[in-house]
Amino acid sequence: MTIDTSASSSRRTEVLAGISTFLATMYIIVVNPSILSQAGLPFSGVLTATILLSFFCSLMMGLYARNPIVVAPGMGLNAFFTFTAVKGMGIQPEVALGAVFWAGILFLIMSLLNVRSAIVHIIPLPIRYAVSAGIGLFITLIGFENARFIIANPATLVGIAHLTDPIVLTFIVGLLLTSVLVVRDVPGGIIIGIIVTTLAAWPIGRYWGDASAINFGQKTLVNFQGVWAAPDFSLLGKLDLKNSLTWSLWPIIFAFAFTDLFDSLSTFVGVAEAGGLQDENGQPRNLNRSLLTDAVSTTLAGIVGTSPGTAYIESAVGIAQGGRTGLTAIVAGSCFLPFLFLSPLLSVIPSIATAPALVLVGAFMMKPVVRIDWGQLDDALPAFLALVLIPFSYSITQGLVWGFLSWTVIKLAVGKSREVPIGLLIVDAFCILALIAGH
């Protein structure tokens, strides 16, 4: 299948965008195993599963859905797998993997029946615009957190780190440099910023700032731990299909399905709005194929041995770099594959090197917010709740859920029931069930 590169995006731009997206998402190769290993799964096995899922499903997104969006194990979903399903409910890890598989099958059925696509079409436009901006703020918060620029503060909940900290200073230099490169339209500016920030971080813990690096969780920020490590396929096919399909586990299957549903929908909507990736009807481009790809990723996740896969909001980094076609996703997905054998090399690029890119992406994704009529309060208030609750709750799903519910309540209360379609009422019911299940 050929790749359709638009006139506004060259192959060179798409390749650079794909590399940028990979650099922004590659943290999942290490972070996902570190979380799922706490559920009793082998670290090396989850690492291999993470790479396999990210490679195959990102390729499917590029070749089949033709969208510049990376698919990988979802953050939040892996925490739910570990701390709620396995540790909280005492479910065996293999049984939890089976629940992931059945959640994926449920996704596939919903996708083939266009149920998920129908949900997208009933999302009010102000909520869409707000979700895009909210995801941008969420990405920015992740960037600031990765750089330890925003830290916990017992007195004020959050605060800014000391500007004398070498890590914070390195991040600020990287942020300003990357900003200048992006403003001046330097080709590959985000990649250059990541590389230069990595080089600037190299002396931390070696020549100065030892205590700062240790507080960051490492002796040094840029670590070289070798080149080669053999892949571990021990989790491949280890899911327990029989015991996971019991009545007692349906709430877990439902929770996986519902959380992934809104994470993926909000990601597609938000990224499409910010990157101009809509079709002639104003809907996210190739939505049905993208949703089917997302469904396959969850099914495959259970088979290879990891938590559900989903579309990644960090794909906005590559889109900001100019990625517009499936070639971006293909390049990004292909970058995962060598790390089946070269995973130690990931230690070279610290999180503060990708943090400036994440912060800037937040600015890029704020554009749709001007399309909200802030003078029309029955539109503006639900949109505002969706926007702010995404970063404040550290959950895309929570922002979308409360945006939906507040839209329905306010519209019905002011006599505008025509703006609340029956489909949205059905979604509201699922939102309430999700809130109940989450507590």
From TrEMBL:
InterPro entries: Azg-like, NCS2. It is a multi-pass membrane protein. The keyword Transferase does not apply. Keywords: Membrane, Transmembrane, Transmembrane helix, Transport. The chain crosses the membrane at residues 15-35, 41-63, 70-89, 95-115, 127-151, 163-183, 190-209, 244-262, 339-364, 384-410, 422-438. The keyword Transmembrane helix applies. Its main location: membrane. It is found in: Endomembrane system. Belongs to the nucleobase:cation symporter-2 (NCS2) (TC 2.A.40) family. Azg-like subfamily. This is NCS2 family permease. It comes from Spirosoma liriopis.
